[in-house]
Amino acid sequence: MDLQTYQDQRKQFAFYSGSETIDDLTYTVLALCGEAGELANKLKKYHRSRTTPDKLVLADELGDVLWYVAAVATELGMTLDEVAEMNMDKLAARKANDVVTG
């Protein structure tokens, strides 16, 4: 699946719009942080128990992160393709200027 198709299809599952207490951009950014935290927490538990991480469990959480990345892009009025291209341009410029990225 390409990024644009994913971004378009995820809209059918968006039920956060229209909140009276928080705007959609703020909601999606906060939710993205929460989902990234869930991914990190799952990995932490594997490390704590000294077990091999279950890739499918982590991928499931990563899918939630991706959903909210697409949601944030949508709220910014951008496509994931545009965001990805901007990021590659930034990284290429840093590399050309010998700036270390992390």
What is the global morphology? globular
Mean pLDDT: 93
Q: Measured on Cα atoms, how large is the radius of gyration?
A: 16 Å
Sheet of most strands: none
- Unreliable spans are none
Could you give the distance between the termini?
28 Å
Estimated share of beta-strand residues = under 5%
Number of strands: 0
**Alpha plus pi helix count:** 4
The computed structural class is mainly alpha
**Helical content, roughly?**
55-70%
One letter per element, helices H and strands E, the order comes to HHHH
How would you summarize what this structure contains?
This protein has four helices and no strands. With 102 residues, it is mostly helical. The protein has a domain of 66 residues.
What does this molecule look like?
The chain has helices at residues 3-10, 24-48, 55-75, 80-96. The two termini are 28 Å apart. It is an all-alpha fold and 102 residues long. The chain has a domain at 19-84. The mean pLDDT is 93. It contains four helices and no strands. 7% of the residues are buried.
